[in-house]
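Appendix B. One record, verbatim.
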Amino acid sequence: MTVLTSLTLAVAACGGGGGGGEPAAPAASVADPAKITGEVTWWDTTRPDSEGPTFQALIKEFEAAYPGIKVKYVNVPSDQAQNQFQTAAQAGSGAPDVIRSEVAWTSQFASLGYLQPLDGSRAVDQPGDFLPGPSSSTKYNGKTYAVPQVTDTLALIYNKRLLKEAGHEEPPKTVAELKQTALDVKAKTGAQGLALNVDSYFLLPFMYGEGGDLLDVQNKKIVVDSPANVQAMQTVADLISSGAAAKPATTESYANAMTALKEGKAAMIYNGPWALSEIYQGKEFQDKANLGIAPVPAGSVKAGAPTGGWNLAIYAGSKNIPAAYEFVRFMTTAKAQAKIAKEISLLPTRASAYADPDVQGNQDVAVFKPIMDTAVARPWIPEGGQLFQPLLEGYQDLVGGKSAPADMLKKVSEQYHGIMKDWS
């Protein structure tokens, strides 16, 4: 899933994790990759209960195809993996051979010399088949440092029964409609209308909806405290103060929102395709037809949700580079992506995978694909992974009543200027 944390980067640590040299061998020089031996430690960031089994099944298929390679599977919580990899790579020990890297982390780790360049290696198979958006997140300074595994964005996920009982046959298309629908649900069903997740990634649809953003990359300008974003934060605050959204806790809000949706205590949440396998475990969605998925409601300017996803990257200091190449190659094939899409509804990054019957047969993927096509690109810059902690702290202050929208964003802007000192 795409739940993000901050990473405090020490400039002096650059290059501390490994050589960052050129790939050990181009694809054409490998005569029989099935004879490669070694042990690959993989840090997986999926949810171990609802997503992990699919990836562990793929590992068994890989080991059957490559009997000389063993995979050591380690599940690392997605909100801890970034800092843990940074610490291990900086120390030069304890880092995995392969990490499932959130798209915002990839350029960051590459800039520090922690990732193996992959151009010309067997890790990157048929690069032209990858969708442009996910592929762009794997690049840094013109080189490829990862392979796209899955892509995602946010949508409005809702309980059709509760909306219908509140008099709404269709999901809200604007934030104004979202507020009214949520109030109607609360008044007519007793359930909460909207459950918010206090996480900075989940604020972005509100910002994009008002025409805002965090950065103006082209002009190297920090714009997080723009009037558009102030309006977006006022919108979020109004959803809470009006009762349309339950006042969220400042911690564990993701789990709380998911539980409320699954148990029929809340009608709507914002979430991504990674959440579907867990949602279907809830009592409200034993009948999958009760789950609705729609684009995030539009603000006054547009409807927009962020581009997310996960890449597979290889640690530059790995002692098992050839084996790691084969593992990354296998886990990002169209066949592997089709299995992932079929079983847990994660969106493929390969264009060819969408022609697979297993992918076409998953209605959740079919619904998310056009939403994904309109997702807003995030800046793939080394500092990208550091932008979310200041925004998260500001969001917590906002919902906790400790800060007004303009003051909250002013503080976030000041923290951004501390991170990117040469930006205006």
